[in-house]
Amino acid sequence: MSSQEIPDENLPAEQGAAHAAVEVAEDPFADPGLPAHKPRIQDIDERAAKRSERAVALMFTLSMLATIGFIASYVIFPVDKIVYIWPFGHVSALNFSLGLTLGVALFTIGAGAVHWARTLMSDVEVADDRHPIEAEPEVKAKVLADFAAGAEESAFGRRKLIRNTMFGALALVPLSGVVLLRDLGPLPEKKLRKTLWAKGKQLINMNTMEPLRPEDVAVGSLTFAMPEGLDEHAEDFQNQIAKAALMIIRIEPANIKDKREREWAHEGIVAFSKICTHVGCPISLYEQQTHHVLCPCHQSTFDLSDGARVIFGPAGHALPQLRIGVNSEGNLEALGDFEEPVGPAFWERG
Question: What single string gives the DSSP state of each residue in 232-263?
């Protein structure tokens, strides 16, 4: 029989006492008590407290500078700028600067708050008994007293440098979120009102990529043109052609009903925007006998002999016309830009 199976009363006195001591030592619910409080150097040396105060203020100040850097980076770096940064390689200058500055701004606020709490706020452990949930007058008074004591121990009122720099850091950080609202979309500006067409720009045949001449356009024919100097391999080609694409049609001058259309044409050659004014689909279906052009998306129909007005479908207004002429080389050229926005209606139109 092992000693573990022998009742305590049958064990020798020394072994029984030791066995009881082991049982007491293994009690998992024993109260360890609180260790004696050891003051920090900041608690006994005001110069050390001042150094900690300056360190916290420095971190809050760095947060403010980083927030300003975040906003400045958003303004300075273009979206498409790529830079080499070791060890990350080639990265977007804008994304890297935004991430770095915002990370520093948030980290230094957190680090400053932690350093403040660990070096300057009171670290005395206080044991408190559990209380009923209901808030009795005595409890309320105690909570208010504890709050006042905590405020006093935090030195929030005396450490004005920490307080003011913390307020500055917390006030500037939300500006980062406000600036990010800029990414919700491009500013309206006047980009939709202007195209690449300007006085003197030649009309380039989109099939041959050669300048158009009046003799190249037969009566009843439909030709598509783009402005001179527009490179189909350019990065913004699709954005530009979506506003500048032209339909070139030759109509007998006697069949043109609209006076302005006739004045803006050259020997019956008229130039209208190819972009439907409903939802921006490219128009390409032309009926020679009626001079009607049909949008294939939603069947909006325009009369090209009468100012390209809408005669059927959901389009809200006529196709814009481009005023054209002939230059000294005998090529068709624009005499200016469209006088109204191209494509679907938008809120700036009114």
Answer: TTSTTHHHHHHHH-EEEEE--GGG---HHHHH
| Alpha carbon distance 303, 320 (integer Å) | 12
Structure tokens at 238: 């699709």
Q: What DSSP assignment string belongs to 300-322?
A: -EEETTTTTEEEESS--SPPPEE
CA 282/CA 138 separation, integer angstroms: 79
pLDDT at 349 over 70: no
Read off the pLDDT of residues 61-75 as tens digits, 9 standing for 90 and up: 999 999 999 999 989
Residue with tokens 């004696």: 36
For residue 219, CA distances in Å to 102, 152, 343 come to: 64, 92, 26
Catalogue the long-range contacts made by 326-329 (C-beta closer than 8 Å, 24 or more residues apart).
326/214, 326/266, 327/200, 327/202, 329/211
Tokens of 207: 């099939």
- The residue among 311, 310, 308, 312 whose CA lies nearest residue 322 is 308
Residue 348 dihedral angles phi and psi, to the nearest 5°: -75, -15
Q: What is the pTM of this model?
A: 0.51
pLDDT bin (cut points 50, 70, 90) of residue 2 is: very low
Helix (H) or strand (E) run with residue 73 in it:
helix 46-76
- Tell me the two tokens of residue 242: 């979506």
